[in-house]
Design a protein that fits this description.
The protein contains 24 helices and 21 strands. By secondary structure, it is of the alpha/beta class. Strands 13-14-16-17-18-19-20-21 form an eight-stranded mixed beta barrel, surrounded by five helices. A hairpin with a 5-residue loop joins β13 and β14. It is elongated and about 120 Å long. This is PAS domain S-box-containing protein/diguanylate cyclase (GGDEF) domain-containing protein.
């Protein structure tokens, strides 16, 4: 028999307690020791089911409890309560697993008890039939047998006319419905069911009375005058006369109130978040289905998607127990005001909550509710010695029910929440169809990008780099493009940011690097000394990749490209580690012969001095301040100063400066006067494929 961890009760003690609770609920044809041995085997099988074995084993345990004559509903109730309390001390299973195991046990018990009931019903039916139809000489003996079964049965029995009038009852029926026999006899079976169950009961009785079926089954609820509910499982049988015509009905009532309440408890657990007590995703699904019923014209619905700001920092710094207590506080502050407004708060998981507003009266009242909830959330929370202040970002959707569904509502709220998080903390954003369409496109591109790399939807083109002194082609800057099946040709500015956010940038950067090296190796073979040197810009995340050096070496080796025929563009922040020391990658690449260029040079003039002494081959200047140098009336003085300062800084470092985005000859001339040596952009030439670059140089030669 499996055992718990140190300090927990022994399994045999738990089994003894189990036996003590159930032994007196029913007649059990075994001694206490035999019962404990029997329950011990059952306990081991339940532990096995919790460990990951099939939950069918729990169903088998329920069936065997019935076969051991533990058939009183109290035996099942005490068993489930005892196991629900004790099993978690022996196995650290998820709450859902424990619920599934106990649910299967109850289902097996109910199924076996139903079979036993049907067997009893057949005995009773035969006994009653024999009592009515047997010959006169056997009548007394038959009546004695049927009366014994009729009187002693634990099931409530009613002899009923074909139109539903009760003619006779047994003592068990009076106990179940807490009425005297005189109150029941002469009354209608329809008086023993609540209104919501009358239609199904009438259909069942009618099918039996007309002879369409000989048996019928139904679960029925009956409400007593004091408001308490009695749940019964009704099994009805038709008794025919000697000619085979319908004569009367025998209805058997089994009291399943305890079992039903336990099952209802398990159902509640399935739709409740165990940490906060709010509804969970499953509950939201059912609530959304009800809120989206178009039961009247113009019906509206609101959905508010909350995400706590910086909650991870609370867990990381103060620990998960503090974080859990904070989540419970937030849940309480959402639940009460939401309920007052006729709304429902649920926890989606983690630090995300949703407030559903059925039958909303417009965006204004929903926003008012959101602002009230945000004020509640941001009130200080005292947890132990810590005073915490939570905040949340909220995506709000409010619209007519017609034309929407649960999936669209949740998706739009989620995207709107993403906009709220992007715009800052502790604020709400209302759904905007146009902006959300843009966000959906971004999410779609983000999801499709990995497949695009695999399916060769991406390709590399080059922007020529021109030498301002000679006009010659000094190099080529690689740019990746995406031939999207729906959106057409996309520039890297439309998807590189997505690749950076999703972590795909390392894989994408390696793919681009391999393509460029293959092109450059062909240029070297075909053009020799005239082959242009391509520049590939690496992202910050790619530069931090520990496999970067090995990856570059493998690509150079596989393509046969000499390292000196490649230039890598690096962001300034990638040149230094967390201690502000130059990264080892620079020396390794420089020793290999690869040219290193810093792009976005001059963004932080105060830190330019630390570039002194690094093995760099040049810098690239880009930004909006370069554009005014193309103005015929003269550049903006501040823009000219910024460019002059960046170029001057490069010259003091002994590095040539390249300017990006140069469009006109006037702009190029002014940049040359400021000390820029090379430029890229429309002035230097339009984007071209690798083959076009090769053909251009070959034709010029």
């Amino acid at each position: 028999m499996g055992g718990p961890a140190d300090g927990q009760p022994r399994a045999d003690e738990v089994v003894r307690q189990w036996a003590s609770q159930v032994i007196n609920t029913s007649y059990v044809p075994m001694g206490r020791r035999d019962l404990e041995a029997f329950l011990g085997k059952c306990f081991d099988e339940l532990l096995s089911a919790l460990d990951g074995g099939g939950v069918e084993a729990a169903r088998d345990v329920g069936e065997r409890l019935v076969s051991a004559h533990l058939t009183n509903s109290m035996a099942l109730a005490r068993t489930l309560r005892h196991l629900a309390a004790e099993l978690p001390q022996f196995r650290e299973a998820e709450p859902g697993r424990l619920t599934a195991v106990l649910g299967e046990l109850a289902a097996g018990y109910a199924g076996a008890l139903r079979k036993q009931t049907l067997c009893e019903q057949e005995v009773i039916q035969r006994a009653v039939s024999e009592a009515r139809d047997a010959a006169e000489e056997a009548l007394r003996a038959s009546e004695a047998r049927s009366r014994a079964v009729f009187t002693a049965s634990a099931l409530g029995i009613a002899i009923v006319t074909l139109d539903g009038v009760i003619e006779e009852t047994n003592p068990a029926l009076t106990r179940i419905f807490r009425r005297q026999a005189s109150e029941l006899v002469g009354g209608s079976v329809y008086e023993l069911a609540d209104e919501g169950w009358l239609v199904k009961l009438a259909d069942t009785v009618a099918a039996l009375a007309t002879g369409d079926t000989d048996q019928g089954f139904l679960d029925i609820r009956f409400t007593e005058p004091n408001g308490s509910h009695v749940w019964t499982q009704l099994s009805g049988s038709l008794v025919r006369d000697a000619r085979g015509e319908p004569d009367y009905l025998v209805l058997l009532y089994e009291d399943i109130t305890d079992r039903h309440m336990l099952q209802e408890h398990f159902r509640q657990q399935a739709v409740r978040d165990p940490l906060t007590g709010l509804g969970n995703r499953t509950k939201l699904e059912s609530s959304l289905a009800a809120a989206l019923e178009p039961n009247r014209p113009g019906r509206r619905v609101g959905l508010c998607y909350f995400d706590l700001d910086g909650f991870k920092a609370v867990n990381d710094s103060l620990g998960h127990p503090i974080g859990d207590r904070l989540l419970r506080q937030v849940a309480q502050r959402l639940e009460a005001p939401a309920a007052e407004a006729g709304a429902e708060a649920v926890r989606m998981g983690g630090d995300e909550f949703v407030v559903l507003v059925p039958d909303s009266s417009g965006a204004g009242p929903v926003v008012d509710l959101v602002e009230r909830l945000l004020r509640e959330i941001t009130r200080p929370v005292l947890i132990g010695a810590h005073e915490l202040r939570a905040s949340a970002s909220v995506g709000v959707v409010e619209r007519e029910v017609a034309g929407t569904d649960a999936e669209a509502l949740l998706r739009d709220a989620d995207i709107t929440l993403y906009r709220a998080k992007s715009d800052g903390r502790a604020q709400w954003v209302l759904f905007d169809p146009e902006r959300n369409a843009e966000a959906r496109d971004r999410f779609r591109l983000s999801a499709e990008l990995p497949a695009a790399v695999d399916q060769n939807e991406l390709f590399v083109e080059y922007e020529p780099i021109a030498d301002l002194a000679t006009g010659a082609l000094a190099g080529a800057a690689a740019a990746v493009r995406w031939d999207h099946v729906e959106f057409g040709e996309l520039g890297d500015e439309q998807f590189l940011g997505l690749a950076e956010e999703t972590g795909l940038i390392v894989r994408l950067g390696s793919w681009v690097l391999e393509q460029v090296c293959e092109h450059a190796a062909r240029w070297v073979r075909q053009l020799g000394a005239d082959a242009p040197v391509p520049t590939v810009n690496l992202s910050l995340r790619h530069c931090r990749d520990p496999e970067l050096v090995a990856g570059v070496q493998n690509i150079l080796r596989s393509t046969g490209l000499p390292p000196g025929a490649l230039a890598l563009g690096l962001p300034e922040s990638a040149l230094f580690d967390h201690q502000d020391d130059p990264v080892d990658t620079l020396e390794i690449f420089a020793d290999m012969g690869i040219k290193l260029v810093v792009y976005k040079f001059g963004d932080d003039y105060a830190r330019l001095g630390r570039l002194r002494g690094l093995p760099l081959a040049g810098v690239r200047i880009d930004g909006p301040h370069l554009a005014s140098l193309a103005d015929p009336d003269g550049p903006d003085p501040l823009d000219r100063h910024l460019v002059h300062a960046a170029v001057g800084g490069a010259q003091l470092l002994g590095l040539p400066a390249l300017a990006a985005g140069v469009r006109t000859e006037l702009q190029a001339d002014r940049l040359r006067e400021l000390g820029v040596s090379t430029v890229q952009g429309p002035f230097a030439g339009e984007r071209a494929s690798a083959l076009e670059i090769e053909q251009f140089i070959a034709a010029r030669g």
